[in-house]
């Protein structure tokens, strides 16, 4: 899977809405600058989804080192409203298989995201060691799960207009004031209009579902991400992705979340872990 620069195109697509354009030659410290746009419609209450912001920066980093992401960590410094942004990327090290890069996303000259990642082509080992303590998550088929309504049909983030996600029946109880009591959300991730899902889109998938803490006894409100790490474990086969996100520890104003994402071929294609602030009453 070659890593390429995606320039401004159809902004209704994920690829177009995460497009980046080089605007400066390599600097003395080995850095590269990219221009990008944070587009409306990929937001939650006016602030861009964290996975979406991560995907923009990840695309610039992948273009710089010429390889797709394997693991990427982002620290969120402030919200990202719609508007132009810049991504400054510096290559830390390049090896035969892996390359490491740092990046800063800025809006109006102010740092919004700080990232560190390792990039490299997937190299499945046909005869290498394999171990899986758990199999793919067991959820009903895509058609039997609950659609996430578009924002025009009820309370919900604008982001859902860009996706075709579905939730496991019961896991959507928080929407009607009947949370399960277990901080877990399971379901299917897909982009609108059957747009293909690549390694960059997996960064969005890791943060596109309602926070599992919504199924606890905490209020359904904004859950600001402090840090998000995504491990890309493989190139997804075509079709929607099965996802499970769980919170195990909530205390001192912070909540953790861990996730796993499986493709239509029953292969684990991504894992995620993030730390967020607990939701507060509006």
Describe the protein.
The protein has 282 residues and is mainly beta. The chain has 2 domains: 14-119, Acyl-CoA thioesterase, double hotdog domain (Porin); 143-277, Porin. The chain is 10% helix and 36% strand. It is built from 3 helices and 16 strands. It has helices at 14-17, 50-65, 199-205; strands at 20-24, 31-38, 43-44, 47-48, 69-76, 83-94, 99-107, 110-119, 146-147, 166-167, 184-189, 225-232, 241-246, 250-251, 254-262, 268-277. Strands 1, 2, 5, 6, 7, 8, 9, 10, 11, 12, 13, 14, 15 and 16 form a 14-stranded antiparallel sheet that branches. A hairpin with a 2-residue loop joins strand 7 and strand 8 (110-119). The radius of gyration is 18 Å and the shape is globular. The mean pLDDT is 90.
